[in-house]
Sequence to fold (126 residues):
Amino acid sequence: MLEVVHIVGIALLLGNLVLLEARVWGLASDVPVAPLARLSLGLAVAGFGLCAVSGLLMFSTQPMELLANRMFTVKVALMMLAACNAGWFHARRSLERQDFGARASLLLSTVLWLLVITCGRWIGYW
Fold:
């Protein structure tokens, strides 16, 4: 069940980030970005919360094995990069600007989260 909760969290997180990214890149430009951002970022944060809780619970079952796993280490490093990128995105008020920096940051966010997911899947095989 923890893995199911983790996958639901991933879907909420990544799905809503991609939705917001599509809007900032110009798709559905008739949809106001501020209300969309409030909804999608709220759901993305909820998804991250589900991932964090379920991930910590899964980690607690075999911490030493996971800490020795290179893919787990890379996954955690990528999550830290994603957090720094999110901080930079919001600190520069990228939603108000919707400029190249905002687009690049959102694209980087999506790539980082896809890499996090990939590393997560590889943990069992590494």
User: Anything to note?
Assistant: Helices lie at 2-24, 33-61, 63-67, 70-91, 94-97, 100-122. The two ends are 23 Å apart (CA to CA). The chain is about 85% helix and 0% strand. The mean pLDDT is 95.
